[in-house]
């Protein structure tokens, strides 16, 4: 197996790091307030949407068709995602300075973390076992195409394409992510 | 007047057994709990594991079936205590996160003990060890950022700095140079016995943890780093266990173990910030008081001696998890280039050390160096958290 430094070509390494990025954004939302918190929370919501969309498009199909018992593994992950999405929808309409916001955010953080750890322990290790190097790499480039849709850091003053998309409505972000992933998969897969 | 565990009554042994429901403790929050709560959990797990392993060894050497049964009964409860304590750790934490917490324990527990150890030879042994665990923390923190894109400060929370200590590659010494001289059980301060047992137990648990979790990683550099640091933990256990007087009888050792558990549960109960965890420390203290009473009875019966002869008249000041930054920085300034020779310490890379280094490294960089090189390749920098200014050693300040 390749060393970590070269593991940009490994979808599992990328997804695991993205889990870290998501947790970092939770931290940022918690320790900021006002506009800063609103901005950090928008980035968190978008990263979650992009991450989950990319997993749906890239990872889940592979698990379903290549991992023994993959259907059930995917079902379990979808159940966790549903729970997290319910909390997220409650949060999404809420003012980030609402006194109840942090309590709900805490619940979301734990749901998202539980889902992420379950992926790492019960799904990703099987992907590494059943995907060859090329497959890990092609899935990785699809994921990177998706990643471009969700900036983790604010880009003040720069009007990049990614920023425009990230500032658009969530459904549009999901659509654009899906398109980008499918295009990348078609090209590399 | 301080707390004298010999004068307090605990929970009768036949009422200490817990049901599944009582063992089903709620874990602490992986991100938002007090880092020192997690440190106390990790420490007490190591203490309970040592109590259990010691009791098993004792039972194997014990011809008296009645004593064996008595040991078994207490040991079963200790196993339950270990489950209740270690299960406070959250399943949401990754192995590396728990590893970083283990190294925080090693730095701040050993640091505190070094600061309070009355015997200068023993103090030096702890000071020597601190700088090595401190460097392990730094290596694992860099690995953590590579694998999980998270910074170790989210775990240690600014309480413990993260920067180079004595470089890990220099920890590989000839095994003969890891054996220290023991204290004298008849003349040493009773506090020194507690310190030695505590640090030995903590390092032993770290050794056991790394030897078991290391192969769970898939990334080659992670697997290799756990191998390297795992071997150093063996050296640390050898180093600390050799401080204990081997002339202590089994009964005496049993009493020391139980007394130390009382001391630590009492200490942690006094300082615990999490009320649910505090309740566990309090319950376990009340169990340990009874274990101590039983151990004292066994000692009187089989050793013909009074436990008071070997114990302090009251518990020493509570052992505290707190910042040791200034202390560690002072060591970084003065003890970086130390190694061991025989039972002492020297500043020269002597022949036996050099030969060991050549053989184990085989002319290549060890994993502890390669992890930093790979991190640098990924991020263009290394991971450090220097909250009190730049590194005291100019040679170890970050380049660029």
Walk me through the structure.
The complex is a heterodimer of chains A (189) and B (400). Chain A has 189 residues and is mostly helical. Chain A has one domain. Chain A is 78% helix and 0% strand. Chain A contains 7 helices and no strands. The longest helix of chain A has 33 residues. Chain A is globular. About 5% of the residues of chain A have low confidence. Chain B is mostly helical. Chain B has one domain. A two-stranded antiparallel sheet of chain B has the order 1-2. In chain B, β1 and β2 form a beta hairpin. The termini of chain B are far apart. The model of chain B has no long low-confidence stretch (mean pLDDT 97). At the A-B interface, α1 and α4 of A face α5, α8 and α13 of B.
Low-confidence segments of chain A? 157-166
Following the backbone from N to C, one meets helices and strands of chain A in this order, namely: HHHHHHH
The gyration radius over C-alpha positions of chain B equals 21 Å
Number of helices of chain B: 13
Task: Bin the helical content of chain A.
Answer: over 70%
- The coarse overall form of chain B would be globular
Q: Could you state the oligomeric state of the chains shown?
A: heterodimer
Give the helix level of chain B as a range of percent: 55-70%
- Low-confidence segments of chain B, given as residue ranges, are none
Distance between the termini of chain A: 20 Å
Q: Largest interface: which pair?
A: A-B, 25 and 21 residues
Average pLDDT number of chain A: 86
Cα end-to-end separation of chain B: 56 Å
């Amino acid at each position: 197996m390749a060393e970590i430094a070269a593991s940009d070509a490994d979808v599992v390494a990328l997804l695991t790091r993205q889990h870290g990025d998501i947790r970092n954004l939770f931290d940022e939302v918690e320790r900021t307030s006002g506009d800063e918190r609103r901005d950090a929370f928008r980035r968190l919501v978008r990263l979650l949407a992009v991450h989950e969309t990319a997993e749906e498009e890239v990872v889940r199909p592979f698990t379903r068709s290549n991992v023994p018992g993959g259907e059930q593994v995917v079902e379990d992950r979808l159940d966790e995602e549903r729970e997290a999405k319910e909390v997220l929808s409650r949060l999404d309409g809420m003012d980030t300075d609402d006194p109840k916001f942090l309590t709900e955010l805490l619940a979301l953080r734990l749901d998202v973390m539980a889902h992420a750890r379950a992926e790492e322990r019960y799904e990703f290790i099987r992907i590494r076992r059943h995907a060859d190097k090329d497959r890990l790499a092609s899935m990785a480039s699809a994921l990177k195409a998706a990643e471009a849709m969700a900036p983790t850091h604010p880009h003040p003053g720069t009007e990049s394409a990614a920023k425009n998309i990230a500032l658009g409505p969530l459904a549009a972000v999901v659509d654009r992510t899906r398109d980008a992933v499918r295009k990348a998969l078609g090209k590399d897969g | 007047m301080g707390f004298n565990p010999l004068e307090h009554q605990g929970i009768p042994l036949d009422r200490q057994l817990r049901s599944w429901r009582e063992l089903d403790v709620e874990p602490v929050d992986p991100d938002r709990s007090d880092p020192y709560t997690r440190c106390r959990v990790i420490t007490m797990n190591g203490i309970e594991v040592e109590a259990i392993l010691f009791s098993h060894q004792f039972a194997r050497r014990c011809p008296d079936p009645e004593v064996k049964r008595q040991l078994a009964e207490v040991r079963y409860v200790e196993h339950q205590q270990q489950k209740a304590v270690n299960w406070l750790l959250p399943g949401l934490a990754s192995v590396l996160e728990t590893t970083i917490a283990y190294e925080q324990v090693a730095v701040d527990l050993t640091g505190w003990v070094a600061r309070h150890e009355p015997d200068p030879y023993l103090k030096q042994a702890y000071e020597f060890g601190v700088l090595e665990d401190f460097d392990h923390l730094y290596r694992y923190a860099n690995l953590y950022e590579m694998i999980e894109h998270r910074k170790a400060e989210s775990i240690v929370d600014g309480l413990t700095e993260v920067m180079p200590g004595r470089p890990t590659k220099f920890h590989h010494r000839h095994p003969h140079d890891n054996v220290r001289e023991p204290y004298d059980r008849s003349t040493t301060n009773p506090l020194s016995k507690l310190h030695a047992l505590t640090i030995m137990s903590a390092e032993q648990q770290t050794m056991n943890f790394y030897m078991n979790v290391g192969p769970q990683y898939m990334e080659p550099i992670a697997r290799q780093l756990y191998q390297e640091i795992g071997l150093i933990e063996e050296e640390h256990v050898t180093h600390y266990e050799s401080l204990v007087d081997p002339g202590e009888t089994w009964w005496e050792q049993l009493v020391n173990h139980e007394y130390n558990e009382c001391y630590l549960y009492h200490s942690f109960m006094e300082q615990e910030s999490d009320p649910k965890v505090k309740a566990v420390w309090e319950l376990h203290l009340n169990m340990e008081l009874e274990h101590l009473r039983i151990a004292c009875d066994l000692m009187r019966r089989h050793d013909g001696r009074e436990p008071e002869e070997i114990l302090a008249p009251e518990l020493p000041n509570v052992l505290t998890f707190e910042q040791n930054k200034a202390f560690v920085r002072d060591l970084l300034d003065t003890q970086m280039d130390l190694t061991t020779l025989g039972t002492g310490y020297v500043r020269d890379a002597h022949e036996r050390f050099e030969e060991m280094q050549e053989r184990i490294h085989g002319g290549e960089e060890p994993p502890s160096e390669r992890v930093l090189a790979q991190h640098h390749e990924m991020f263009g920098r290394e991971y450090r958290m220097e909250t009190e200014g730049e590194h005291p050693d100019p040679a170890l300040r970050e380049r660029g």
